[in-house]
Design a protein that fits this description.
The complex is a heterodimer. Chain A contains 18 helices and 19 strands. Chain A is an alpha/beta fold. Chain A has a 6-stranded mixed sheet with strand order 5-6-7-3-8-9, sandwiched between helices. Chain A has a 6-stranded mixed sheet with strand order 13-16-17-12-18-19, with helices on both faces. A 3-stranded antiparallel sheet of chain A has the order 2-1-4, with helices on one face. In chain A, helix 4 (112-127) packs across helix 5 (144-156) and helix 14 (355-369) crosses helix 15 (385-398). Chain B has helices at 2-25, 32-39, 42-57, 65-79, 84-107, 112-130, 140-146, 155-173, 175-185, 187-192, 197-223, 234-244, 256-275, 280-310. Chain B is mainly α. Chain B has 14 helices and no strands. The longest helix of chain B has 31 residues, at 280-310. The chains are: A alpha/beta, B mainly alpha.
Chain lengths: 483, 311
C-alpha cells in the first residue's frame, strides 16, 4: 500500500436544501495515512460533507467514490468508512457488547458475546488505558464521557475488516483533557499504521497538533486545504472568515444603543464564564458554534420569567422558536389563530374571545409585517416558510412582552423576508423592546448591538459596537487550546 | 447486569408478598394441586404478555392481542381436532398477517395503536364467524399437555418457567432479539448500521403473533372449548403484565422473565381478592389498585436510584 492510496474521493459535489446551498462544488480527496482536520463555522457544510462521505446523503450533483465504486451507505460501510457522530448513535437500552454486535454485521457466530466482549475490552484498553468501563453494562447507565469512549471504541473495532477512514465529529466535546489526549494519541498511532481520519473539532489546538492536512470550509465551499504546518490558530480563524464588506455591515447595524436600564441579568454559571446582561432597547446576540449552550440560556431566561404552572396575567417575555414545525406553529390552525394565540387573554371579554378585536389585531399585523396571503383565515401551512416565521414574530410582538427571546428563528428563510424582519426588529428596539437573539448566521449576529459568544456552555467573550466582527466572533468560538 | 436485576427486583418481591398473603388467607393453596389451580390460567396470560412485550420492545403497542388470542382459540377449538392441517394453515396465515401489519406500520409510520385497534375488530369478527356460539373442543394432545402432572412442581409453574426461559433466550440472548430491542432503543442508528428496520419490525410482529397463538391454544387446552370473547381482557392484562414486570412503553427496555412474573402476579391478584371475599364488582378496581401500588413502588425506587447516581 503506497502512501497515496485514495480512500475517498469527492468530486464537485453539490447539495441543496431548499434555498440553502449546503455544499457548493466541493472537491476533496482523502488518502490513506493522513489525518484531515476539518474546520468551519456554523453552516459551512461540515456535517453535510460528512454525511456525503459516509453515504447517508447522496449528493444532488457530483460524485463520491471509494476506490472505484460509487456511493451508497452499503458501499461506504464496505469500504471501511466509519463515523463517530456528534449526537451519539448508541442504543441506550442495550449493553456495550450488544451495541457492538448491531454496529458490526460481521460479528456473528455462535459465541459472538464472548468475541465482542474480548474485542471491546482490547479496543477500550488500547485507546483509553486504565478505563473502568464494564463491557456488560447497559449504555444508558454510563456517563456521557464513557458513552463517547464506547462509541469511539466501537467504530475503531476490527472484527474481520479494519476501518480505513474514521470520521470523528467533535469527539472530544464530552471527554476531559486526559481522555482527549489519549484519543488524539490513538488517532496518531492509527494513522501511522496506514488508516485515515477526518477530524472535526472546535478546539483549534487539537486540530493543529493532530492533523497532517487542514481543510477550511465556508458557505459550502472549501476555501483552503493546506498542510497543518502552514497554519496557526490566528491564520485558521482568519481563513474561516470571509473577505468582509465592513462598510455595508456597519450601516445595516442598528443605530440604537441600549439604555442604562438593565432588564435581564444572569451570573455566569461556569468558571471562566462571563455574566449575561441585557438592557432596555437593546438587541443582544448570542453567537458561537451551534449547540454550545445558547438555546439553554434562552430557555433559562424564559423559565425565570414565567411560571410553569399558572399562566400570569402579564407575560413580559415572548419566545420565538427556531424549529417552526416542532415548537412554533399549530399546523392545523389558521394564520389568524396562530398569530393571536399568545395574546388571547388581552382579546378576551367575559372569558370568550372577541372575534372582532381579534380580526382587527390580525389585520393590523398582516399589514405591518406584510404576511403574503389572500386571506388571513387560510391554514398556516399555506404560507411559505419565511411568511410562517413572520407570523411567529407577529405572535411574539403583538403581546405586551418587553423581552423577546429568539432561538435562531431565521434558519432557512429567504433573504427578502430576512431584511423585512430585521427592519421590524430595529424599529421595535427603538420603541424600547429588548431582543435576545441566538443566531447561527454571521450577518445576523453582526446586526446586534452587543454579542455574547458561547463556547462549551459558557459565555467566553462579550463584543460590542464596532468589535462585533466576524473575525472576533470566530476567534472566540474556537478555542486555541484544549479545555 | 446491575440494571437487569434491579428491574426484576420489584416484580419478584410483589409476587412473593402476594403469594404469602394468599398462603396466609388460604393455607390449602400451599400444595401441588392448590398451586396448579392458582396459576394454571396464568399460562395463557403469560404467553400473551410475552407477545405484547415483543411489540412493546419495538416501541409499538398491540390493542388487538385479546381478540387475536380469542381468534386463535376459536380456530384451535373449531378445526384442530378434525382438520388439523386447515387449522395450522389458518394460524400460519395469521402470523403472516401480523408480519404484514408490522411491515405496513413501519413503512407508513402509522400509529400502531390505531392499526391494531382496527385489527381487533377484524380478529373479533373472524372469531365470531368461525364459532358463532361457544363450543368446539380441545384436541386430545393439547388437553393432555395442559393437564400433565410433572413430578415436584405443578404444570403451571413448570410451564411458566419454560416460557420465561425460552423468551428470555430469544429476546435477550440472540442477535435477532438484540436487533428487536435495538429497533426500540434507537431505530435511526439501527438503519445507519445497515439493518433493515422493516424486516426487523415485521419479524417482531410475526414472533408476537406466534406467542399469541400459543396463548390461544393453551387457553383451549385448559378450558376444553372456546368462544369468540374468551380472551378479550388479555389486551389490558398483557400491557399491565409487561409494565409490572419492569418493561417500559418506549425505549426497548423489556424483561421477558419480568413479564412472566408480572402475568403471574396479575393472576394471583385476582385469586387474592376472591379469598378476601371482595365481590367481583369491586375486583377490577382492586386489581387496578394493586397495579398502582406496584408501579408507585417502582417510581420511588427509580427516583431514589437517580438521586443516588446524581450525587
Amino acid at each position: 500500500m503506497s502512501d497515496h492510496d485514495t480512500v475517498v474521493s469527492v468530486k464537485d459535489v453539490r447539495v441543496q436544501f431548499g434555498a440553502v446551498k449546503a455544499l457548493d462544488g466541493v472537491d476533496l480527496e482523502i488518502f490513506a495515512g493522513e489525518t484531515i482536520g476539518l474546520v468551519g463555522h456554523n453552516g459551512a457544510g461540515k456535517s453535510t460533507i460528512v454525511n456525503v462521505i459516509n453515504g447517508a446523503l447522496p449528493p444532488h450533483e457530483g460524485a463520491v467514490s471509494y476506490g472505484a465504486q460509487d456511493s451508497t451507505t452499503k458501499v461506504a460501510k464496505d469500504n471501511g468508512v466509519r463515523c463517530v457522530f456528534q449526537e451519539l448513535s448508541l442504543f441506550p437500552n442495550l449493553t456495550i457488547v450488544e451495541n457492538a454486535r448491531l454496529m458490526h454485521s460481521d460479528l456473528g457466530g455462535w459465541n459472538w458475546r464472548k468475541t465482542a466482549a474480548r474485542l471491546m475490552r482490547e479496543m477500550l484498553d488500547e485507546i483509553f488505558p486504565n478505563n473502568s468501563i464494564q463491557t456488560q453494562s447497559a449504555v444508558g447507565e454510563l456517563s456521557i464521557a464513557e458513552r463517547q469512549m464506547v462509541e469511539i471504541a466501537i467504530k475503531f473495532l476490527n472484527v474481520t475488516q479494519a476501518p480505513k477512514l474514521v470520521i470523528l465529529d467533535e469527539p472530544t466535546s464530552s471527554l476531559d483533557a486526559t481522555l482527549a489526549e489519549q484519543l488524539l494519541a490513538h488517532v496518531r498511532r492509527y494513522v501511522s499504521e496506514g488508516g485515515s481520519v477526518l477530524f472535526i473539532s472546535h478546539i483549534l489546538g487539537e486540530i493543529l497538533s493532530t492533523s497532517s492536512r487542514i481543510v477550511v470550509m465556508k458557505d459550502g465551499k472549501i476555501v483552503s486545504s493546506k498542510p497543518a504546518s502552514e497554519f496557526s490558530v490566528q491564520s485558521l480563524v482568519e481563513t474561516m472568515g470571509s473577505v468582509v464588506k465592513k462598510s455595508e455591515r456597519k450601516s445595516a447595524r442598528s443605530a440604537v444603543q441600549g439604555s442604562e436600564q438593565t432588564v435581564l441579568h444572569i451570573p455566569s454559571g461556569k468558571a471562566g464564564g462571563l455574566d449575561f446582561n441585557a438592557t432596555r432597547g437593546e438587541i443582544v446576540g448570542l453567537a458561537g458554534l451551534g449547540g454550545h449552550g445558547q438555546t439553554e440560556m434562552l430557555l433559562d431566561l424564559f423559565n425565570k420569567h414565567c411560571s410553569n404552572w399558572v399562566p400570569e396575567k402579564q407575560q413580559n417575555v415572548a419566545f420565538v422558536a427556531g424549529d417552526r414545525s416542532l415548537n412554533g406553529t399549530f399546523p392545523l390552525w389558521s394564520i389568524l389563530r396562530n398569530l393571536t394565540v399568545s395574546n388571547v387573554r388581552a382579546l378576551a371579554r367575559f372569558a370568550t374571545i372577541d372575534a372582532a378585536r381579534e380580526d382587527i389585531q390580525a389585520d393590523e399585523w398582516k399589514k405591518r409585517i406584510e404576511i403574503r396571503t389572500p386571506d388571513i383565515d387560510n391554514p398556516i401551512l399555506s404560507l411559505s416558510g419565511g411568511n410562517q416565521q413572520k407570523v411567529l414574530f407577529a405572535r411574539a410582538l403583538s403581546g405586551e412582552a418587553e423581552i423577546v427571546l429568539m432561538d435562531d428563528p431565521m434558519r432557512g428563510v429567504d433573504i427578502g423576508t430576512k431584511q423585512e424582519v430585521y427592519n421590524i426588529l430595529q424599529s421595535e428596539a427603538v420603541s424600547g423592546r429588548t431582543f435576545i437573539w441566538y443566531s447561527t448566521e454571521m450577518d445576523e449576529v453582526c446586526l446586534c448591538n452587543r454579542v455574547y459568544v458561547f463556547r462549551d456552555g459558557a459565555i467566553v467573550a462579550e463584543l460590542s459596537g464596532d468589535d462585533v466582527t466576524e473575525d472576533n466572533i470566530l476567534a472566540a468560538s474556537f478555542s486555541g487550546v484544549a479545555a | 447486569m446491575k440494571g437487569f436485576s434491579a428491574r426484576l427486583l420489584i416484580p419478584v418481591i410483589s409476587l412473593a408478598i402476594l403469594l404469602c398473603a394468599v398462603f396466609y388467607l388460604q393455607p390449602r393453596t400451599m400444595s401441588y394441586l392448590g398451586l396448579n389451580l392458582l396459576f394454571n390460567l396464568a399460562v395463557p396470560i403469560a404467553l400473551a404478555t410475552i407477545a405484547q412485550m415483543i411489540i412493546m420492545s419495538v416501541n409499538d403497542l398491540d390493542l388487538s392481542i385479546g381478540t387475536f388470542v380469542s381468534f386463535a382459540a376459536c380456530v384451535t377449538a373449531a378445526f384442530m381436532p378434525e382438520t388439523p392441517l386447515l387449522a395450522i394453515a389458518i394460524l400460519l396465515a395469521a402470523i403472516a398477517a401480523y408480519a404484514v401489519l408490522g411491515f405496513v406500520i413501519t413503512l407508513q409510520s402509522l400509529p400502531s395503536i390505531v392499526v391494531t385497534l382496527g385489527m381487533s375488530f377484524v380478529w373479533g369478527g373472524l372469531a365470531v364467524l368461525i364459532l358463532p356460539s361457544p363450543g368446539g373442543q380441545a384436541p386430545d394432545w393439547l388437553r393432555s399437555i395442559m393437564t400433565v402432572k410433572p413430578p415436584l412442581m405443578p404444570m403451571a409453574i413448570v410451564a411458566s418457567i419454560i416460557i420465561a426461559l425460552v423468551s428470555h433466550f430469544i429476546i435477550m440472548r440472540t442477535t435477532f432479539g438484540v436487533a428487536i430491542r435495538g429497533a426500540g432503543g434507537n431505530g435511526r442508528s439501527l438503519v445507519r448500521a445497515g439493518w433493515s428496520l422493516l424486516k426487523i419490525k415485521a419479524a417482531a410482529y410475526a414472533l408476537a403473533a406466534f406467542f399469541a397463538i400459543l396463548s390461544g391454544m393453551a387457553l383451549v387446552g385448559l378450558t376444553t372449548a372456546a368462544d369468540a370473547n374468551i380472551a378479550l381482557r388479555y389486551t389490558l392484562l398483557s400491557i399491565a403484565g409487561v409494565i409490572l414486570g419492569g418493561g417500559e412503553f418506549v425505549g426497548g427496555r423489556v424483561s421477558p422473565i419480568g413479564a412472566v412474573v408480572g402475568a403471574l402476579t396479575l393472576t394471583l391478584a385476582a385469586s387474592f381478592l376472591s379469598f378476601l371475599h371482595i365481590s367481583p364488582d369491586w375486583q377490577i378496581g382492586a386489581q387496578g389498585a394493586i397495579l398502582i401500588v406496584v408501579l408507585g413502588l417502582r417510581l420511588i425506587f427509580n427516583f431514589g436510584k437517580r438521586k443516588g447516581s446524581a450525587s
